[in-house]
Amino acid sequence: MEKELNSLVKVGVSTIMSVSYCFFLPPRIKSGFFRLVSILPVCVLFLVLPLFLSFPLFSSPAAILLILADLKLILFSFDQGPLSPLPSNIFLFTCFTCFPIQRQKNPKPQAGGQDQMHTWIFAIKVVLLGVLLHLYHWKTLPPIMLLGLYPPFLYVLLEVSLTLFRILLTIILKCNLEPHFKEPYLATSLQDFWGRRWNLLVSASLRACVYTPVRRVCQHLMCSDDSAMLISVLATFIVSGVFHEVLFFYIIGEMPTGELTLFFVLHGVCTVGEVAVKRTAFAQRWVVRQMLSRLLTVGFVVVTTWWLFFPPWIRSNVTEKCFNEASLLIDFLRRKLIFLYLKTQVISVN
């Protein structure tokens, strides 16, 4: 554990030094190709750094944050994304680069009743996360039932942890930050789920890095704007699938199986088909009830995650590894604290 923590510190120091370089030098270069060239070495380094971590407990958040940082820096090269306009100081620049946060552009004041409702909903999610963690840690349910609980477990784990992190950074940075999720279980279509409710920071980054450039290129090559839009949607899902395969390699250390890419390609094809059907005269006359559309959308997402998304992670026992590593970390920190306490007591006696 001590060796892994030393590696984590080295990765953190390397990241901060690289981000500091990006704050001081590239902004002096005009936005565009030459600024991108000046930032590319940092982007390559960020792709290498997660390889120095062997524990999934550390390598998974490091890989996610560094890949997100790469996307932000690429957008920064063209004066876009969360880093544009340039934050006023290096601390803000480092936070917005390294952490999964984005400044809220048009904060809307919420009514007291609505804010209280969100608080109650969040409290329920915290309780649900505690129950699911207990079930997975002690394995009190049959394996098939544990598999069925993976989708809600992943969602509430991300929602609770990222919301608490956002609240903390909102207090520290003294600015409003964009939420990461917008009640994805209320999605009425795949387009609504992926574009407006699930993992909003990543969706915005992929929209700016992949969707918009591909659409512009396709608009120049073909006459139909609709075709360009559908191709760019599919391209965005393909890139997202490749990113998840890379994350799998970083976290597990095994060659990807292609199931994650297939999952996103399937959703990309279905989203493209959904958008195309919505534009037909028949679909515009046929109104689907909101409750039915929610059940179909969430049901499709859950079934396909069971089929394609979760099996690679389950086969690698990544959840069990993270629980074991968390126990090792807690035990290591407890022993260190006891040692420091005893040391201070000996010094005070002498």
TrEMBL record:
Source organism superkingdom: Eukaryota
Record-linked InterPro entries: Wax_synthase, Wax_synthase_dom, Wax_synthase_Magnoliopsida
MF GO annotations: O-acyltransferase activity
Keywords, in A-Z order: Acyltransferase, Lipid metabolism, Membrane, Transferase, Transmembrane, Transmembrane helix
Transmembrane segments: 32-53, 84-101, 121-138, 153-173, 229-252, 258-275, 295-314
Membrane topology per record: Multi-pass membrane protein
Biological-process GO terms, alphabetical: lipid metabolic process
Residue ranges of every copy of the Wax synthase domain listed in the record: 178-265
Cellular localisation: Membrane
Entries under Pfam families matching the protein: MBOAT_2 (PF13813)
GO cellular component terms, A-Z: membrane
PANTHER family the record matches: LONG-CHAIN-ALCOHOL O-FATTY-ACYLTRANSFERASE 3-RELATED (PTHR31595), LONG-CHAIN-ALCOHOL O-FATTY-ACYLTRANSFERASE 7-RELATED (PTHR31595:SF31)
Family, similarity comment: Belongs to the wax synthase family.
Name of the protein described by the UniProt record: Wax synthase domain-containing protein
Species this chain originates from: Brassica campestris
